Amino acid sequence: MKKTILIAAAFLAVPSMAAAQDAPSATVTTADLDLSTKAGQDKLDKRVDQAIRRMCRVDGFDAAMLRQQADCRLAAKANAAPKVAFAIETARTGYFAAIALDAQG
Where does the signal sequence lie (predicted)? Predict the structure, then answer.
């Protein structure tokens, strides 16, 4: 079972491979969450959102910097979505499989 989710913010228009490798990333821990429950999923969503905000923070408030921050957040959210869905589905599948095994004795 995955215990963490790695989020990356790769921009669509990256001028060079070096810039792509320097794209920000963050890790979100899921080991203490029960992702088979709504409460656990809500906590994961909050952690992902907080990680994205920290990861995409910029040092300025001009239009270009704010646009860069918005692009980073969108890219990171898009990157995280399938990973979050996979983690939740894995938790649900494991939970229901355990119930089925226990019911059979």
Answer: 1-18
